[in-house]
Structures are given as structure tokens and as C-alpha cells.
Please model this.
Amino acid sequence: MKSTLEPWRAAWAEMETLQELSSLIEATDSTAQADLAKSLAVLAQEVGRLERKTLFQGEFDASNAILSITAGAGGTESCDWASMLFRMYSRWVETKGFKRQVVDYLAGEEAGIKSVTVEIQGEYAYGLLQSEVGVHRLVRISPFDSNKRRHTSFAAVDVIPEISDDLQIQIEEKDLRIDVYRAGGPGGQGVNTTDSAVRITHIPTGIVVQCQNERSQHKNKAFAMKVLKARLHEAERRRREEAAAKNYAEKQKIEWGSQIRSYVLQPYQMVKDHRTDTETGKTQGVLDGEDLDLFLDAFLRWKAQKK
Model:
């Protein structure tokens, strides 16, 4: 309780100190006014950080996250867009001081990424990234089009919490199909030379998970099972939450009209979230992961208001 309350008490005390200082500073003292403004900005940033924590009320918000990106309609264009999203989230992970580990990677035939799954470790990683679930749309002048025409590309992002091994989820052996194959993505010495990659299909639900990060088939199977349990748990949670709408298994098509966020680079610059109506013209800042928090915070507030 102390670790929760003390930062709020410290912020409150700082606010009272700054209020007192503001009453003592002369209007003509520009240096003191500038120092006060700087201190207020620091306080506002700290209060914003504290406020965000009050918005994390989900059972697994404090958990690590497993993030997947899949290229949608659009061929090479969408594979390149999936790689841009992968870069965006990787940069965002760096700005937070989090850690990431690529679990599965499938490169595009000509460029980019067909699909990638990443484990992200950090405080409230899932709580922050839960807003990213859905279809992301990109509009730009295609670097692959010699006629320099404008193209629209789509990619789907899914995020699930990494659940504890203590959480009991019953999986029948007869409900699983397990395939082993040679890893095809980037890896260290030995990763791509043996049939160590593992793909597990849960037959009743059709959920497929795969892992090719480790040299050991046993380790890859163990992690794939961990991801499968997390997906099954998340699927059930979403099914309960969305019972009045759609079953989790009925995925939206990764194409026009189903996007949660649009990234427009041509003919103007704008990123807009279609759920919260949050938008910014700092497209490069968002794609660099630096301004992504604008959308993550807006989603948390939007979700809290809906509740």
C-alpha cells in the first residue's frame, strides 16, 4: 500500500509547493516563471503516469504480452506494412526499457514479413498493448510500384497476456496435432539446421501456435504450449465479453472497412484511431514508436469510460 500511496503523496506535496512558489514569484521575473513552468511540466508528466496506473483494472493487465502481426490483403505491400509495424513496436519496446524475444518469424516472399510473434516482457506490457488488437491500415505511395501510385495495405495485430503456469487450463492430448519442421526465420547457429521448430494445432478451436526460436525441439514445444494455453484462455475471455456481438473465432477479414487505426502518409500525414477518434499528424513519430503512447493512453481512458 505504501508503494502505491507514496508517489501520490509526493506529487500532492510538489503541487502545494509549486502553488506557494507561484504566489511569491513576480510577474516580471521571467527566469523564475520559466523554472516554475518547467517544474509544472515535470509534475504533469508524473501525474499522467500515476493516472495511467489507475486505468489498469484487468486481471492480466500487469502481465507480459505476446504480440502477433499478420500481413493481410495486399501481397508484398502488406508484408512490408507488417514489417513496419514490427519495427514500430520494437522501437516502442526500447523506449520503455522492456525486453522482446521473437518466438516465430515468417518472411514475405519478396519483402517484409508474412507473420511474426514476439514475447514482450515489461511492467503492464499487456495492459498497455491491449489497444493494438485489430486491423491496421496504411495508405502511401508504394515503393514497389514503378508508376508511384497510392496503395492501401492491411495487417492484423493480436495481443494476448502471458499467463502464469499456475493457471490451470485442461488440454486433452487427443485434441492436439503436433508438427515439427526446420526453422526458416532468423536464428543463431544450429537453429536452422535441425527439425526443432514446433507447430501445435488445437483441433476443437482451430487455434494454431508455433515456435522456432530455440535450438531445442523440447523448449520450442514447451513455449508453444504456453502460448496455446494463453490463446485458449484469452479466446474464452473474449467470448464471454463479446457474447452479445461475435464469437472470438469469427475473425474480421483483414481488409477495407474493418480497421481500428489508419496510418495515412499520402496525400496528407495523419494517424487516426477509429475507436477513440484520437489523431495526430506526427506519423513518423508514431511509426518510430515514440508517439505511440498517445493512442495507448487514449484507448485506456476510452475503455474505462465504456465500463
